[in-house]
Write a structure and sequence with these properties.
The protein is α/β, with parallel strands linked by helices. The chain folds into two domains: 166 residues, no CATH class; 187 residues, no CATH class. 52% of the residues lie in helices and 9% in strands. The protein contains 18 helices and seven strands. The strands form two sheets. A five-stranded mixed β-sheet has the order 1-5-3-4-2. A hairpin with a 4-residue loop joins β6 and β7. α3 packs across α4 and α8 crosses α11. It is elongated, with a radius of gyration of 25 Å.
């Protein structure tokens, strides 16, 4: 198939539409349940009140707002693919935004800006102080402001909205790779997303990974739980064909979330058994560097050690082999040239996994 034929074929798979809608129309869609902004996403997006104020300032000054991308579901409801924060800000300003529990979020209080310092302390409406309520003429400007919508129609390929979400929220966004994946999971299957979240909160697992606040805030613990599901029992043939690890994790996540044969109970048992064992044997030393000179584990969490230790232990525990002298074996990894060569800086994740994952299976097989 030629490049032109490939382009034409894929273009036919994606049906789109688009037009401009007033803010009042966007609010009506939300209040009538005709648009799903996925309130679960709010934990991944981190606009503060100043950033929200800038959006409202832009609307008041007539500065064009980027279009909102939505996907039309089979029931006609629009799924927001990109534009959640913009819409949420408008809904919060107007006092109709609801959280995951369907409770109304406190209305937005605006801040003063360089061009509109008098916005400071303003609300959509104020029963306590009429001078803090936006004037009626400014509320009309906001209600009548237009925001373009680009719609992926329901006739499109079912993966189109997920591909679009990734493209719009990767690279230039403030989201970590796993936060993007978590948003995809919410759209794919909320129960699978919550199941991964529950795994990541398992206390022995948290004790073993011992992450600092920053990676935890970026959902790195749920990424590690997901990586475990993907790599702990991966076949060596599939591992040998591994290319881009980030893309592979996202693709495998999608497969697991949409596979009715995926046995969550069995995997939960393996996950909990593995990290209970490691917590009892090593605790917070499970995935730290072993300092040979000081004869102790030091530093913070290391992904390469997580890969060789947790995947290696899980592979053998699944086969009813409980490794012995685990603390010594983990310490000895740092004297093993096979590990130190392939876990150092400059080695890509793809090359590293192909070599240290089989090593972990070997080390903990006795």
């Amino acid at each position: 198939m030629s490049l032109s034929e490939e382009v034409n074929e894929k273009r036919r798979e994606i049906r789109t539409d688009g037009y401009a809608m007033s803010v009042s129309e966007w609010v009506s869609l939300y209040e009538n349940g005709e648009i799903d902004i996925h309130p679960e996403f709010q934990r991944f997006y981190r606009w503060d009140d100043v950033q929200k104020t800038y959006l409202i300032e832009s609307i008041l000054l007539g500065i064009p707002i980027p279009p909102v991308f939505v996907s039309q579901r089979a029931d006609g409801v629009w799924d927001v693919v990109d534009g959640l924060q913009r819409l949420s800000t408008i809904y919060q300003l107007m006092g109709c935004l609801k959280d995951e529990s369907k409770n109304v979020v406190p209305p937005l209080v605006l801040s003063g800006t360089k061009y509109l310092p008098s916005l400071d302390g303003m609300k959509w409406e104020s029963l306590d102080d009429q001078y803090l309520a936006l004037p009626a003429d400014l509320r009309l400007i906001i209600k009548r402001a237009k925001i373009n919508v680009s719609i992926i129609l329901k006739e499109s390929d079912e993966n189109a909205k997920y591909d679009l979400f990734q493209r719009l929220n990767t690279g230039g966004s403030n989201l970590s790779p796993q936060e993007v994946r978590n948003c995809l999971l919410v759209m794919l299957d909320k129960t699978f997303y919550r199941w991964i979240l529950d795994l990541s909160r398992f206390i022995p697992f948290q004790e073993c990974i011992a992450l600092s606040d920053n990676p935890l805030s970026e959902a790195y613990d749920s990424e590690l739980a997901l990586r475990f599901l993907i790599f702990a029992q991966i076949e060596e043939k599939e591992l040998s064909e591994l290319k881009d690890v980030g893309v592979f994790i996202t693709e495998k996540m999608t497969e697991l979330a949409t596979d009715p044969q995926f046995d969550r109970d069995t995997w939960k048992q393996l996950f909990e058994k593995t990290f209970t064992f490691l917590s009892e044997e090593l605790g917070e030393d499970s995935f730290k560097r072993f300092n040979i000179i000081k004869n102790r584990f030091t530093g913070g969490f290391l992904l390469s050690q997580f890969e060789v230790v947790s995947y290696g232990v899980a592979w053998n525990i699944a086969q009813e082999i409980n490794p012995t002298d685990v603390r010594k074996k983990v310490a000895d990894i740092w004297s093993d040239e096979r590990y130190t060569t392939w876990s150092g800086s400059g080695v890509t994740a793809t090359r590293r996994l192909k070599r240290i994952l089989p090593l972990g299976r070997e080390i903990f097989s006795r």
